[in-house]
Specification:
The complex is a heterodimer of chains A (about 280) and B (about 750). Chain A has about 280 residues and is an alpha+beta fold. In chain A, about 35% of the residues lie in helices and about 25% in strands. Chain A has three domains: about 40 residues, no CATH class; about 110 residues, Uridine Diphospho-n-acetylenolpyruvylglucosamine Reductase, domain 3; about 100 residues, CO dehydrogenase flavoprotein, C-terminal domain (Enolase-like, domain 1, 2-Layer Sandwich). Chain A contains twelve helices and 14 strands. In chain A, the strands form four sheets. Chain A has a five-stranded antiparallel beta sheet. In chain A, strands 11-12-13-14 form a four-stranded antiparallel beta sheet, with helices on both faces. In chain A, a hairpin with a 6-residue loop joins strand 13 and strand 14. Chain B has three domains: about 190 residues, Aldehyde Oxidoreductase, domain 3 (Alpha-Beta Complex); about 325 residues, 2-Layer Sandwich (Aldehyde Oxidoreductase, domain 4); about 140 residues, Aldehyde oxidase/xanthine dehydrogenase, molybdopterin binding domain (Aldehyde Oxidoreductase, domain 4, 2-Layer Sandwich), CATH 3.30.365.10. A seven-stranded mixed beta sheet of chain B has the order 3-5-1-12-9-10-11. Chain B has a six-stranded mixed beta sheet with strand order 8-13-14-15-7-17, sandwiched between helices. In chain B, strands 19-20-28-29-30 form a five-stranded mixed beta sheet, sandwiched between helices. The longest helix of chain B has 28 residues. Chain B is globular, with a radius of gyration of 27 Å. The chains are: A alpha+beta (about 280), B alpha+beta (about 750). Bound molecules: flavin-adenine dinucleotide.
């Protein structure tokens, strides 16, 4: 479990970093917190000739909270989110979901950009990103472009990032006051990747009916995605035992869970229904 | 013992801890020799196949690569990994070659060794070796093994390597006459003793002195030296096995593996020190697996719940080869199925199956954890069928104190007769119930509170210890008046330095600070048997008691001369010797030259600790999650040396048992690929998973078989965990009629049982 040989660069600017990637193409890889990349290299599942470390690129670790929402720089770490004074109020769902990510040591290094770029189907942040219509910023040789979370995750460990692009930030639209929300996941041990998880939020209209129901699911398909059918059963309805049951049932049929040695597909399908049910109950209470 | 007992029984802090907690431990990875090279192993990626060729030309041309060893380099006949325990000739055909030669039989089997300037270069070279394997179908389960469509060892004609029998009384007659019988099939999944510090060796061959030094010894250094000497064609005294700090064994680390031979062999071959430290991925496929068993067992009882007999068959999945101690689990699973219970008639057979998986060996409570799951489940099933309270049934059937010593079933082959030595099972059960708070908790039985179903259960166990034949100790009174204790036992992280110091201090009647304990390395004493079968404290500790007596007798004439008194007037105290008038001479004045005495403690009778364990669980029927809310255990060890380290053994043992019951599983696919090859996939309990564990250790019934009265205590509470938790889950889900017959009780498995139970 020793790394294959590679060159290492820690450029001082984003432009330099992008230029290095452009010059080396698929042979170069970006290094952020290294919590996933280092094991990948140790297992020799990848053998890049160059690592481009983002540690000196300025401003990538910023966390901005404003009227338009929350913007996390790609290099902001889980522990930065956890310790940030204003974030829990500005985006409670994001703050809560982050609490479930990995273990203490990993949280001290693991980054937002690394998680989004890695696109593990069970990772929390990608689930929150799709549930919240987050917008991702990619910097490449031709400048910046923005990709909606729904279009960003293409499959397990596959994203819309081109080999010469760097993810610089993710933006979460503003969080209205009184928004209802919940995050529920089920993992075998604390800090493990979840077998499945649900991030949801909605607003209530004057009649107490759910509006803009957004349910993101992780661990239940090859990528994080929204549960549109479950959302549809809830939109315009009161959140009560009957509608919750209907939403849970819809959720269980619209996911296409993978089968692996951690859990069979039918278990994951049932788990999604349970988590949707529990999240809706929690949000309503 | 003659001296007043001050150290034994006190919860001294471990003397090891200061060093270890400050990062000053010396584990094998910390050892470096000048000019050393590094090894990496090419392991088979195919579970079963004919090995047609290994082409290392490209690897050898890589800069920094010194050698690539394959089967051809090891000479003919190929050295085999011998069997250390129960070395029956019938098992020899199943011994593992040090490197695969004609066939590969499991994923992870060593095929070649690369020696290079660094381990990174050695790993680079692995990718350049071309291995030509003609695949054969993989045998991955009992059905395939028995169908014998493919044979791992065609010369043998079957995938059954061995059959073991446990017999007592006349089981068939008892079944015939019984009011009640029930027969069920149980399975325990493959898991392993996952010691935290992976294996490793640094080996150095001194060409001039023709001496080999091997760092990284553990558990059974003397036995391994014997094996190494035989396989390398050396005399034993040409080899020093050196034990440093060891990060856990649990039965697995320290057994002789192919790497134990290959690293020293490479060092001699190249004339340079060679180092190898196992990485976690190879550990999970290379170090012994354990526990996998299927049991078809039947219980017979009277209508009012007196167990009459057990009979049935076990099949252990032994993996691709029979390794050094691979026969222990199958034989134990038959002999110890009756546990702490008075069962007069037994006929159990264990078959060892060869499969295309990692070979197996002992893991804390080998062949004890598995049948305890079977027996405790059968007792609860029986109680339910007969409408009896499972607690009453246990009380009714525990071996009573007045039946001690109580004979267990006799094993063949390698005939072994053994008896529970002493104890009061009922007292331990009652104490366990009191510690647990049974009366309040049992009121929750089967209740649903906040969406989770609650269940409680209790089970009783025995733990064998003190394997013979002997242990040696040597004590030296140094010229500065301190005592050096040299011991053949091994340290595997259990705090042996502290415990042996306590025993020696009391045996000599001197303060703890006066004693230095040295152990584990073959240079210290003539012979040693190491640390397994909960034997170190009993065997090594007893040897110390004898050596201390011998040393004091040697010192007596010296003291008498110094004091000018009669031999029998000499009295030893903390500082030295006194005569009747109070004239004193200090120890350092008695040892112008060091005075040394050696003793051997011989014992072939096992000790049996015993006790009970109660658990309270809550089951989430939607996720299948089993939460352990409380566990209380009791164990009688006869004589407690250090309550603090013992409590650590008990709690740690229970946590490991919970890992094996709820989390850990080696999963193979149908091709024999190991799917759980990382610690993200193989779920080990972590520090936060099971916080509510309480253990109580008692000194009720000293063992009659040793001068300390101590019983082995290193395995104990892991043994009942599977059965007790499974019974608690059955109680919690009794309303659904769920009856667990298989481990692990993972969320998907519990959920599946509920799906099948709900119409
Ligand atoms: C034991 C363990 C448990 C874990 N549990 C969880 C968990 O429960 N939930 C969870 O979400 N995660 C979990 N993780 C993953 C952890 O959060 C990772 O740190 C994270 O997913 C990757 O972040 P990183 O900064 O370490 O990225 P790195 O490891 O440095 O990089 C990961 C990948 O992303 C690429 N990359 C990184 N940054 C960028 C960028 N800005 N632009 C383009 N590409 C980039 C890299 O090239 C690499 O391919 C766990 C990890 C471990 C080791």
């Amino acid at each position: 479990m020793k790394f294959p040989a590679f060159d290492y660069a820690a450029p001082d600017s984003l432009d330099e970093a992008v230029a290095l990637l452009a010059a080396h193409g698929e042979d170069a890889m970006v290094l952020a917190g290294g919590q996933s990349l280092m094991p990948i290299l140790a297992f020799r599942m990848a053998a890049p000739s160059l690592l481009v470390d983002l540690k000196k690129v300025p401003a990538l670790d910023r966390i901005d909270i404003g009227a338009e929402g929350v913007t996390l720089g790609a290099r902001s770490r889980w522990c930065d989110i956890e310790r940030h004074a204003g974030l829990a109020a500005a985006h409670p769902l994001l703050a809560e979901a982050t609490r479930h990510i990995a273990h203490y040591q990993i949280r001290n290094r693991g980054t937002v950009g690394g998680s989004l770029a890695l696109a593990d189907p069970a990772a929390e942040l990608p689930g929150v990103a799709v549930a919240c219509d987050a917008l991702l910023t990619l910097a490449g040789p031709g400048g910046e472009r923005h990709v909606a979370a729904a279009e960003f995750f293409l499959g397990p460990m596959t994203t819309a990032i081109a080999p010469d692009e760097i993810l610089t930030a993710v933006h979460f639209p503003a969080w209205p006051e009184n928004r209802r929300w919940a995050f529920q996941e089920f993992a075998r041990r604390k800090g493990d990747f979840a077998l499945a998880g649900v991030a949801l939020h909605y607003d209530l209209d004057a009649q107490g009916r759910a509006r803009d129901m957004r349910i993101g699911v992780i661990g239940a398909s090859d990528r994080p995605h929204r549960l549109h059918a479950a959302e549809a059963t809830m939109n315009g309805s009161a959140v009560d035992a009957a509608t919750i049951a209907a939403a849970a049932a819809a959720a269980s049929t619209e996911v296409s869970p993978m089968e692996d040695h951690h859990a069979p597909a039918d278990y994951r399908r049932a788990l999604v229904a349970t988590l949707v049910e529990r999240a809706l109950q929690e949000a309503a209470s | 013992m003659s001296a007043p007992n001050r150290l034994i029984g006190s919860a001294l802090e471990r003397v090891e801890d200061l060093r270890l907690l400050r990062g000053r431990g010396q584990f094998v990875a910390d050892i470096n020799r000048p000019d050393q090279l590094h090894a990496a192993f090419l392991r088979s990626a195919v579970a079963h196949g004919m090995l047609r060729g290994v082409d290392a030309a490209e690897a050898l041309s890589l800069d920094g690569v010194h050698a690539v060893l394959t089967a051809r380099d090891l000479g003919s006949p190929m050295p085999l990994l011998p069997i250390r325990l129960q070395p029956l000739p019938e098992l020899e055909p199943f011994c593992q070659p040090m490197l695969a030669d004609e066939k590969v039989r499991y994923v992870g089997e060593p095929v070649a060794v690369v020696i290079a300037d660094s381990s990174a270069i050695a790993e680079d070279a692995l990718d350049l070796i071309a291995v030509d394997i003609d695949p054969l179908p993989a045998i991955t389960n009992r059905d395939q093994a028995e169908a014998a469509g493919t044979l791992l060892f065609p010369e043998h004609g079957s995938n059954v390597s061995m059959r073991w029998n446990a017999v007592k009384g006349d089981a068939d007659a008892a079944f015939e006459a019984a009011d009640y019988t029930r027969r069920e099939t149980f399975t325990v999944q493959r898991h392993a003793a996952l010691f935290m510090e992976p294996r490793g060796f640094v080996a150095e061959w001194d060409t001039d002195a023709e001496k080999l030094s091997v760092w990284g010894a553990a558990k059974v250094a003397f036995a391994n030296r014997k094996i190494l000497a035989a396989t390398m064609g050396l005399e034993r005294d040409q080899i020093d096995m050196i034990e440093g700090d060891v990060g856990g064994s649990f039965g697995s680390r320290g057994e002789f593996y192919p790497e134990d031979f290959l690293i020293p062999f490479a060092a001699r071959h190249l004339g340079r020190p060679v180092k190898w430290v196992e990485d976690r991925r190879e550990h999970l496929m290379a170090a012994n697996h354990a526990r996998q068993i299927e049991c078809d067992v039947e219980i017979a009882a009277t209508r009012d719940g007196k167990i009459l007999a057990l009979r049935g068959t076990n099949w252990t999945d032994n993996g691709a080869y029979i390794r050094t101690n691979g026969s222990i689990a199958p034989r134990n699973a038959a002999q110890f199925m009756s546990g702490a219970y008075d069962i007069e008639h037994i006929r159990l057979t264990s078959y060892s199956l060869t499969t295309n998986k990692t070979p197996t060996g002992t893991y804390r409570g080998p062949g004890r954890f598995e049948p305890d799951f079977v027996r405790e489940r059968l007792i609860d099933l029986m109680a339910k069928d007969l409408g009896l309270d499972p607690l009453d049934v246990r009380r009714r059937n525990l071996v009573p104190a007045d039946k001690m010593p109580y004979p267990l079933a006799t094993m063949t082959p390698f005939e072994s007769v053994t008896s529970l030595d002493s104890g009061d099972n009922h007292a331990l059960l009652d104490r366990c119930l009191a510690e647990f708070g049974w009366d309040e908790k049992v009121a929750l039985q089967g209740q649903c509170i906040d969406g989770r179903y609650h269940g409680v259960s209790v089970g009783c166990f025995i733990e064998g210890g003190a394997a013979g034949p002997s242990e040696d100790a040597r004590i030296v009174l140094e010229s500065d008046g301190s005592f050096a204790v040299y011991l053949g036992s091994a340290g595997v992280g259990q705090g042996i330095e502290t415990i042996m110091g306590q025993i020696a201090g009391d045996a000599l009647g001197v303060p703890f600070e006066r004693v230095r304990v040295h152990y584990g390395s073959t240079a210290y004493v003539a012979e040693g048997f190491g640390s397994f079968h909960s034997r170190s404290t009993v065997m090594g500790g007893s040897a110390i008691v004898l050596a201390a007596e011998a040393l004091l007798e040697k010192l007596r004439p010296i003291a008498a001369a110094a004091l000018g008194c009669a031999l029998d007037a000499v009295v030893f105290d903390e500082e030295g010797a006194r005569d009747a008038d109070g004239k004193a001479v200090a120890f350092d004045a008695l040892s112008d030259a060091p005075v040394s005495a050696e003793a051997r403690f011989e014992n072939k009778k096992y000790t049996y600790s015993y006790g009970s364990l109660a658990a309270h669980v809550a089951v989430d029927p939607k996720t299948g999650q089993v939460d352990v809310l409380d566990i209380a255990s009791t164990k009688d060890v006869g004589r407690m040396i250090n309550p603090a380290t013992l409590n650590g053994q008990s709690v740690g043992s229970i946590v490991q048992g919970l890992g094996g019951t709820l989390l850990e599983e080696f999963v193979y696919d149908s091709e024999g690929q190991l799917l759980t090859g990382t610690l993200a996939d193989y779920l080990l309990p972590t520090a936060t998973d099971f916080p509510n564990i309480r253990s109580t250790v008692l000194e009720l019934a000293p063992s009659p078989h040793n001068p300390l009265g101590a019983k082995g205590a290193g395995e104990g509470e892991i043994i009942p965990v599977g059965g007790v938790i499974a019974n608690a889950v059955a109680q919690a889900l009794a309303g659904f009629g769920v009856e667990p017959m298989a481990l692990p009780l993972s969320p998907p498995n519990v959920w599946r049982m509920l799906q099948e139970a709900i119409p």
